[in-house]
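Appendix B, example 12.
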Amino acid sequence: MVGKLAVTFALLVAGCATHPAAPDAARADLAPSGKLRAGMNLGNALFTTKDAATGAVRGVSVDLMRELASRLGVPVEFVMYGTPGQVADAVGQGAWDVAILAIEPARAKTISFSPAMTEIEATYLVPDDSRLTSVGQVDTAGIRIAAPAKAGYELYLARTLRHAELVSTKNLAEALELFNHRKVDALAGLRPALLEGREKTPRARLLEGNFMIVNHGMATPLGKAAGAEYLKAFVQEMVATGFIARSIERNGVKGLSAVK
């Protein structure tokens, strides 16, 4: 009996040494209601998927939010959104405390981001008979590009395109519909999502290369300095220890990688 108690005590001490308690100021910033309200973007299956029958969510974002809640010593509540734009737009409503979003200057006006933790290629899908053969040719006068409004790569294109016309849509499905009806010349998106979408558009091809690498980070409303500093250290640890890489592998995600 004494031996079992000694082992239990040693494990508790080891656990405390490995994961010290979060500072009170960080906990107050990241879980002001006594629980971690995690903003979940169901529009990006690379991070989050929801079981249609049970409603249960799983994925890299779920693993990270549960680990963060554990470190903070609070329960986690998943707050669902259909698109990343909806998550970002809700920042001023106080509905979520931490989210995972693409790091983008336009969002940094209201959101504090951790360092980048993952990488995803963004590229274009074009019709088989398109004259476009490389990513560099797409930003040309007369070319129309469809992309879901307020997605990280759509915000990037809105900022950087010089000649092509950007056609923003409600979501990826709507952008894909425009593409299928030949109302646009190219469809912008994350490579894994476009590969999946190509199954519905057999007469289309992906352009080689990418127009950007999308980096995601953990986000919290601007003005929470202690919380933002804690998220920075947390993400750096999750990358360095291989937690994110293992989560990606465990969830069977293709096209998403942890930053090096």
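The chain is about 35% helix and 25% strand. The CA atoms of residues 93 and 208 lie 40 Å apart.
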